[in-house]
Structures are given as C-alpha cells and as structure tokens.
Amino acid sequence: MKHLNGLAAERLYEVKQEFKFIDHPSDFGIEAYGESVQDVFKNAALGLISAVAVSSGIEIRQERKIEINAMDRDNLLVRWLTEILYLYDAEKFLTADVKFEKLTETFLKAKIFGEVYNSTRHELKADVKAVTYHQLKIEEKNGDWTARIFVDV
Amino acid sequence: MSIKQLDEYRYLIPKTFREGMNVEGMVYASSEIFDAIERDETLNQVANVATLPGLVGRSLAMPDAHQGYGFAIGGVAAADMEKGVVSAGGVGFDINCGVRLLASNYSMKEVGPKIDPLLNQMFSSIPCGTGKSGILQISFDQLDKVLREGAHWAVENGCGTEEDIAHIEETGMIAGADPGEVSNRAKQRGKDQLGTLGSGNHFVEIQYISEIFDEQAAAVFGLGMDQIVMMIHSGSRGLGHQVCTDYLEVMQEAMPKYKIKAVDRQLACVPVRSKEGQSYLKAMAAAANFAFANRQMISHWARKSFKQVIGRGELRLIYDVAHNIAKEEEHTIDGRKIKVLVHRKGATRAFPARHHGIPDDYFETGQPVLIPGSMGTCSYVMVGTEKAMSETFGSICHGAGRVMSRHAAKKDTSAEQLIARLKEKGIHVRGASKSGLSEEKPEAYKDVRVVVDIVHNAGIARKVAKMVPIGVIKG
Fold it and tell me: How far is A122 from chain B (nearest CA, A)?
C-alpha cells in the first residue's frame, strides 16, 4: 500500500495533524495516528475534512456538540466520521478541531470547532459519499495508536 | 478447489473457494481482464457475497468488476424474495447512480465547430463539482413529492415530456417509495442537491456515433452514423449516500435478531420480508426516484443549453438506466419461475425483446443498455438478450471499470496535460476540479472496447452502436 504525502505535514493552529491518505483501487483511505484513542478519533476527523477541503484556511468560529452511541469501537469510529461528513455535506460545516468530553468503546461526547464553508476563503477538493467498514482497524502498539478507514468517493 | 475457466469468457468460482459459500460465483472475463480482476479483492468479494443467506443462481461479476466495499463493483446477486436477504451494501452508497442517453437531429459536422460555446453554456447552466448546491429551491414537502414521483415530478414541473417518462427504467418512478422511511438527515443532505451533477466519475458528454453494429436495433432506437448524442451520468447525491449509510447501521443492529452473521460488515443484510428489509427497500426506491429526477433536471438544463447554442430540434431521450439498484423481478432458476430481489452493484439491467418492463416502442427489439467508457475512449449502446435472462438475471456490465487508483492516476498526469492531450484527439473538456479530472484519465480505466466485446461474445448482450466523445463536462 503506497502512502500519500503532503497532508501529513500540514499543521492547523496548535493541532498537530497526524494522518496520511492511503491508496485503494477505486477510492482512498485515511490512516490516523496518535498516543490515545482520542487522538486517532480526532486525527481521523481532521483527515476526513482534509479530503473534502483545503484545511489550512478553516477558522474556529462556531462549535457543535455531538453525542454518539454505538455497537462497538469500530462502529463508533464509523458513526463519528459519518457525523463529521454529515455536518459538512448537509450544513457545510468544516471541522477544524475536536475536544472529547467522553470517549468509551461504545459512546462519545464531543465538541467540534470550525466554521461554515465560505467560497471566498475556502477551497473544496472532493465529494466524499460515505465512510465504510472496509478493512477498518483501530489498534495500539507500544502506546502508539493507529486507526485506518476507507471512504467512498 | 481453485477457479475453473469454463470457456473463453467464463470463470467459475466453486463453493469450495471459501467456507460458507451458499452458491457458486461466476466471473465474465477474458484471460487478460481476469488477470486484472485477480489483482485486487474482487474474487474474494464475489465469494463473500455468495455466503449471503437465500441467494439463488450464482454470485456474478461482470468484466468491468473491481474491488468495492463488501460487494465488488460490477457485481450481481439475486436473493429469493421469501428466503433471501436484502443488503444495503449490495446496492451501494450512490443509489441509482445511472446513465441516460439523449439523441439530437444534428450531425457531427453541424455541432463539431460549436463544441466550445456549447460546453461553456452547459458548464455554466448545470451545477457541477463538489459542494455545489442546485439551482432549485425546494421545500421538504416538495422533496417528499420528488422521492415519491421521481422523474414524473420533474416532467409535471415543465422539465421534460411524457415521451421521456416512457424511456426511463421503471418510467423514472419506482413504485413503493416511501419518504417516511428516509431519514431527515438524508433529506437534509439531498435537499439542495437536486439537479446537480456531483463530482468523481459523474459527467455530461457530447458524443457522435462512430459505428453501428446492429442496423435494425439502431434504427428502432433512433440512432444513426455521425449523429450527435448526449450522455449524462449522475446519481442520488448526498440523499442516496445517507440512505445507504443509515440502513447499513439499521441492518447491522437487526442482524442478531435474525441470526445472520456477515463475513464483512459492509455485507450487512436482513431478510427481504423483514420490517427492516422492507423499510430499506422503500427508502431505496425513494432515493432511486431522487436520482431519476436529478438526471431529468440535468437533462432539462442541458437541453436548454443545446437549444441556445445549436438551435432548433429536440434532444430525444433514448433511455435511462440504473447502475446501483435492487429490483424485485421474476427469473427462471433450475426450470422454476421464482420472484427474486436482484442486487445490481455497478451493473445494468439488460432485458431482451418481448420482456415485460421495457418501453412499447422497444418491445420487439429489447432494452437499450448504455455503457459509458472513460472520457478519452468511447461509449456503447447495447441491447439485452435471452441469454442474459438465463445466466445473469438479465444484467450486464455498467462501464469500463477502474484499474488504477485515484492517487496513481493523478501522480504522473496534470490536468493541463490531460486537457491538451484530449484536445489533440478532438475531445474538449471542462472540469470543475483539476485533480478530479486527472483521476478520471482514460488509462485509469480498463479498455471499454474489450469489456464490451466480452459481454457481446459471451452472448449476454449485443452491440448496437459506438459513440466517441467530442465534449466532456466533469463534475
């Protein structure tokens, strides 16, 4: 699997973006890294937003609250990213930062920060149709967490 | 046991290929195409689909098949209506993504010199590309009407004719659609996207007919040499994507209740007759109707542009087909007629002559099947055959099929290089996104000519006409 460069090096405010885009025969995936589950959930969300828009111009002007119940942790990750995607596609809300109040195997409560798309300041890149379970993984090795997720474009 | 080549174009995946297969798999391919299909997860996905409960016949892959999510793209699988399951992933995220073909009364000679102004006019009047809202402002009540009535809604509102309706699969309105089974979130995503092309592989192309293979069928469809036609490829936009997302979750949660275990979460499924299964089918029909209305609206603006730049004459709708859909149909399995739910995931219905469900004027000829190729090559009109009914649930391929990832496609070709290269070949391009354009370069796809020849030679459809693009609008 080849890794794409470029976005992993981007920085957004104080948030260190730790993710890569990964290849898929017809679409692409996001591999997010961090020192905790919270980190990888956050970085996967920022990775998703980087796929739909140039993320460097997104400012924190609004916040949204999200609560999600899920069947298990993989399901929680899919539902979480689906929520981030929904906010973008339905409300044009671009996420720039995330703070988790609670994150367990099957539940999360978070505040997300960002702003509504403005064509004069933001550049959109691609439509993402959906977040999939295809080859999804969330794993920890020696304290380093990785989450991998593929999206349908 | 390994995969067995049955003849030049058929590869059988036996039940012993993987544990739990309820039916065999079958791949339609030449040896060259089979080599390409073997390189990714397609064969495993065809075998995984074969593990679904209540499947009948075989789990099929068409020659354009490539790795998808759960189901392979280019896959066909039919489930017994009474004992089988429905899978939201078996239809896919872009419910009723499909194509339509419109034919003009003009020749290449007449339109060719005006292709640039025509493309400019179309590019400015059809909303395309990522994040684009539609021109239409509709209320949620109106949206519910769209979900119930599909293309009929557009025609009632002055965007099309009764003749259009007759030339759309299911007349552009799948019965049983229920907006009440579509979540508010799906409606919210789709409300402003009616009449938008979208991005990715969606397009509008101006083409001319460069070859006729079947004079008789071409005459019935109203197609002749050098004639200018227009092909439109789009789907149900965010509304359909969200319906699939929602029901993947509903199905996963309901599976333990029905004691169903899926080998891949994307293959989540429930019995067709279950409450959840019926809800999904009503929501899927609503999303499919949204897609029919979407293509009808895009056609309306494309027709207006054509009239403005080229002049008199109508663009007649030849046909409109769904590529991602589940349909209740009657098929003969082992000599017995049964009702099945045919999942077509990146596959096209291809009914033969004298079959219920095709337009009256095509009744003695068969259903036109529209196969778009990549933008630098060509597209085809084919016609369904009896053999497709006995082998593939009346289904064939839906396009060329990707062979190169989006990243790989972008790596060594810039949009500018691609535009210049295509222009040399006489193909003028407008694209909403530069990187999106490179992702769709011709080499990113299999050769559609090879794919179509496999289908033709295997006898599951016949070639009628070939079209070459002269103008492309990419979302």
Answer: 11
Cβ neighbors of B242 (< 8 A, separation 6 or more) are A86, A89, A130, B183, B185, B186, B189, B190
Per the CB < 8 A criterion, the answer to whether B344 and B76 are in contact is yes
Asked if A136 and A151 count as a contact pair (C-beta separation under 8 A), the reply is no
Closest listed residue to residue B232, CA positions, set B333, B101, B382, B91: B101
A23, A92, A130: residue with CB nearest B93: A130
**CATH class assigned to B4-474:** alpha beta
Q: Which amino acid is at B126?
A: I
Picking from B44, B97, B242, B250 by the largest number of A CB atoms within 10 A of its own CB, the best residue to mutate is B242
CA–CA gap between residue B218 and residue B225 (Å, rounded): 10
Chain segment A89-100, per-residue pLDDT in tens: 999 999 999 999
The larger pLDDT score, comparing residue B380 to residue A120, is at: B380
- Give residue B252's pLDDT band: very low, low, confident or very high (50, 70, 90): very high
Cα separation, B19 vs B47, whole angstroms: 9
**Do B254 and B240 form a contact (C-beta atoms < 8 A)?**
no
Say whether B200 and A126 touch across the interface (CB within 8 A): yes
Contact B262, B269 (CB under 8 A): yes
Which token pair is B465? 């006409």
The 10s digit of each residue's pLDDT in A35-64 is: 999 999 999 999 999 999 988 889 999 999
Longest dimension (CA), chain B: 63
SS (H, E, C) B36-61: HHHCCCHHHHHHHHCCCCCEEEEEEE
What's the CA gap between A114 and A13, in Å, rounded?
12
All domains in chain A, ordered by first residue: 7-152 (3.55.10.10)
Nearest residue in B to A90, CA atom: B189
Q: d(Cα B238, Cα B74) in Å, to the nearest integer? A: 22
- Distance (Å) from the C-alpha of residue A153 to the closest C-alpha of chain B? 7
